[in-house]
């Protein structure tokens, strides 16, 4: 019988529990997918805790996965039983052995890309494409700041930006993570627990500041990230690992004609042509070696609570995936 991890109440990782579910035949425009790998992301932790109230309860969390098409619904073109697909969706339902998936969000996996790699990299890679090609276009000669540079998104962002010719300053929390950040393309690494990252950025840039700051940490780093910007610099807040950013006076941006955005990747993926273009960009970066990624560390799906514990404790040195 199909199984899923059900969320019936907000709380700690222990509220994630495995249950048997019913999965019907695909309706019009849908695919029935037998999942072989499921991505685990901070977004899932925010949904589980109640920080994001975007999944009606009871519900099945999870926004990323990969597997094999078992059946197609009426009107579906371009997909057939046996196709390997991956997806990112804001409709949730990822933590399951089987699911009904809108064909509009499914992506055929390139030959040579494993389902485990797809579940490890799709959301992170599409997010990075959004960040450096659409929200703020990174170009050769720019200097950018990347917080959490050794994290899942951070590593890919640093690799891609460095390949585009940007000078990347990364912040990390330990010497071990500093080595990871340097390998990912950071020209400069700041140990934020030991150093004032604002002062270090000013020193590294000779007082100019950075063209863009990519901040997934949120509350603890937002003000400092803003202080790191050069004139006309852009602060991209795309996460809140330390908590949501408090309200601030927009007039503060006028001092250096700065800009701030809070992008959500699902908005950029909402139209099929954009999804296909971003996926093609990601797949090309992976196949050409611009991005270097490996399948994540795997746990059984029933151990979803443990996966969340590892992610939230920062003990996961690689992306995590669940295996149904």
UniProtKB/TrEMBL annotation:
It comes from the Bacteria. The keyword Transcription does not apply. Residues 11-322 form the Enoyl reductase (ER) domain. InterPro entries: ADH-like_C, ADH-like_N, ER, GroES-like_sf, NAD(P)-bd_dom_sf, QOR-like, Quin_OxRdtase/zeta-crystal_CS. SUPFAM superfamilies: GroES-like, NAD(P)-binding Rossmann-fold domains. Pfam families: ADH_N, ADH_zinc_N. Transmembrane segments: none annotated. This is Quinone oxidoreductase. The lineage of its organism: Bacteria, Pseudomonadati, Pseudomonadota, Alphaproteobacteria, Acetobacterales. Keywords: NADP, Oxidoreductase. PANTHER family: QUINONE OXIDOREDUCTASE PIG3-RELATED (PTHR48106), QUINONE OXIDOREDUCTASE-RELATED (PTHR48106:SF13). PROSITE patterns: QOR_ZETA_CRYSTAL.
